[in-house]
């Protein structure tokens, strides 16, 4: 049986909320995407940092596309175990 594939525009992906499947934490929305223009595929998604430093500079979180587990109607589920900031 063939796996059904869906197409999403970049605008639709950026409007989806990102949720970590391990903790159920809402991580926000996609800030940017890294795209391989030669292979025509997404390499990783860039999420805004959860913390700000003393001088207002924040480190963005880069999540490899392989960690995206499910794309729903309005959410994108990722396995963010190693990318989440440890308290």
TrEMBL record:
It holds the Pfam family PRC. SUPFAM superfamilies: PRC-barrel domain (SSF50346). Residues 8-82 form the PRC-barrel domain. InterPro entries: PRC-brl_dom, PRC_barrel-like_sf, Spore_YlmC/YmxH. Gene3D superfamilies: PRC-barrel domain. NCBIfam families: spore_YlmC_YmxH (TIGR02888). PANTHER family: SPORULATION PROTEIN YLMC-RELATED (PTHR40061). This is YlmC/YmxH family sporulation protein. It comes from Clostridium tanneri. The lineage of its organism: Bacteria, Bacillati, Bacillota, Clostridia, Eubacteriales.
